Amino acid sequence: MAYKWSVREIPAPSYELAKPVQDRLNRLTKPPGSLGRLESLAVDLAVATGRERPRVRPAGVLVMAADHGVARSGVSAYPPEVTAQMVRNFLRGGAAINVLSRQAGAAVWVVDVGVAVDVDPETGEPDPPEVAGSPAVFRVKKVRPGTADMTEGPAMSREEAERALEAGWEAATEMIQAGIRLVALGEMGIGNTTASAAVAAALTGWPEGDLVGLGTGVDPLRRQRKLQAVRRALALNRPNPGDPVDVLAKVGGLEIAALAGATLACASRRVPVLMDGYIATVGALAAAHVDAAVVPYLFASHRSVEPGHGRILRWLGREPLFDLDMRLGEGTGAVLALSIMEAAVRILDEMATFDEAGVSDAEG
Amino acid sequence: MAYKWSVREIPAPSYELAKPVQDRLNRLTKPPGSLGRLESLAVDLAVATGRERPRVRPAGVLVMAADHGVARSGVSAYPPEVTAQMVRNFLRGGAAINVLSRQAGAAVWVVDVGVAVDVDPETGEPDPPEVAGSPAVFRVKKVRPGTADMTEGPAMSREEAERALEAGWEAATEMIQAGIRLVALGEMGIGNTTASAAVAAALTGWPEGDLVGLGTGVDPLRRQRKLQAVRRALALNRPNPGDPVDVLAKVGGLEIAALAGATLACASRRVPVLMDGYIATVGALAAAHVDAAVVPYLFASHRSVEPGHGRILRWLGREPLFDLDMRLGEGTGAVLALSIMEAAVRILDEMATFDEAGVSDAEG
């Protein structure tokens, strides 16, 4: 049986829509181009979705959760059990991603692709997702209870990485089938900036030192430990830069592979993917190495504090909408950017043209 | 009779709230500081409003509209009649500010403080503002039908500038009395980037060339004409940099003075003022020259394309939340930033603490 992500077909974007959409933007009652990035976003969304009037609602954030063997090496300020505790917090609605999603009107989908302990769904709200006010939809697609320590051997087998990609594909597909028109990528996993740095270094060949930051809050000494862990993992496992699945298996994470799978699923259905911070963007980067055709479907939300993030966004040719010094993850930056994505769509939909409003256009 | 803005009292901010609010932010289920600017915004809003749990809803945008005699000198890409046409567009709900305000759930208040022709209120929605779905509240507080050409003499008399300040004070006060908890500043006035540059140059002493940009869309040749108009107006009228009312009268605009008056009114009631682009920020700058006590009540939304904008924001010590290459005005950037302001408040209100959620805190 072939994995669905491995036999995907990703349609070409509708570049032919760029001109008619820009023409319409120029007829709206404002000087041409004066809404700046909102206008280029509207064009990019039309090109990606293949619709002259693209939609981004309803939107949902997909929070992939998993644990990391490397977290036991002291690379994080938090103990590994926080991953499961935060998943419970997501299911009860008390985390930042819940608060921002409630405000933005976005559905929260949490997927356990490899949390070390089982999260009792009873502690969260039950399905179905349709229940209004439910803090989150929860799916268990556990490939294994956390990765092995990549500084001592491969984080997981190739087969496990493939299954994690498939878990992400399936989760995103279910969201899209439930009607979601834009998927924001989020994650939770103590230790996952370390794994993300290793994946990014393996895929891009950039120096590890440029890709290892302070994470959600480590001191410079612990950052040094993270950097050593990344270097040791790469030297020991020798992932093949030309084989993204090999990279994800040897030095990645279950949630990072799942984010890559979700990205492939969204692109195959022309659903825009709104990347969050470092880890989510590394997931999208891995997807782009599996199939470069995903890139036109990727949208950047914010630039996080993590130093490697901006560089990977540039590699992907994606400019963030804002930089608010965020470094939390969970999808928080992406969900905060939703209102800007929606604004771009609404401008196109709802503004009057010069003709309709009886407003004089610019003098020749 | 003394004008209300001239006998104002602006309370001191509650700096003593900064620590308890930051303490609460640190107990929420996220690494300390990991929500970046959202956290500092929450603190700043608490300090400004004097409430440990500040509110920014309901929010409204105050769009001050007026014409400029200097617009007849070809400083804009648009003919002067566009000011009145756009006011009608605001009242019918077809402009960018209507679209973005609808999305953000913000009320639009439009005030004619000096549009050259009378806008027939019949063309727009009638009062009262309480009517759901009404595109805008409209108030006529016309001081005069547009300013005189400042390149030939003072734009208006000192008395007229004082009355425009009072019109702004009154409009903002009415909004606040109607329940508005955050006022976004917007404007409409063909030619008003030219007047704003003149006001900013007079108040700060910075070179005119640094303060004159391309406005909403002029070519470099027309920018040169703008620069000459600003220089001529300053040389001819010699506004007194130590007397902001003199500056507003000689080289300002009716809507710029009204924005200054609105800023003073908001600060006197501890209502946060969310500045939009160049013109709105120059209005706030003029208010800060009338009374520096307004500054803690000022919040920057975006940095516009206009080159002087970022410099004035730095002068005011206010960092924008994003830079999306916008240059439309109307309050569009400010209203787009509302969701970020609200996110800051909601984080403080709605997130679980480590204790409440049973999540382990960072290792000592």
Summarize this structure briefly.
The structure is a homodimer of 364-residue chains. The first copy, chain A, has 364 residues and is α/β, with parallel strands linked by helices.
Strand % of chain A is 5-15%
Low-confidence stretches of chain A: 124-132
Q: Care to count the β-strands of chain A?
A: 6
In the sheet with the most strands of chain A, the strands line up as 3-2-1-4-5-6
Spell out the helices and strands of chain A N to C: HHEHHEEHEHHHHEHEHHH
- Assign the CATH class of chain A: Alpha Beta
Q: Fraction of residues of chain A in helices?
A: 40-55%
| Quaternary assembly | homodimer
Shape designation of chain A: globular
Number of domains of chain A: 1
Structural class of chain A, please?
A: alpha/beta
Reported CATH architecture of chain A: 3-Layer(aba) Sandwich
> How big is the Rg of chain A?
20 Å
Distance between the termini of chain A: 63 Å
Model description:
Helix content of chain A is about 45%, strand content about 10%. Chain A has about 375 residues and is α/β, with parallel strands linked by helices. Chain A has one domain (about 55-340): 3-Layer(aba) Sandwich (Rossmann fold). The first copy, chain A, has a 6-stranded parallel beta sheet, with helices on both faces. In chain A, helix 6 (about 190-205) packs across helix 7. Chain A starts with 17 loop residues before the first helix and ends in a 7-residue tail after the last helix. Residues about 125-130 of chain A have low confidence and may be disordered.
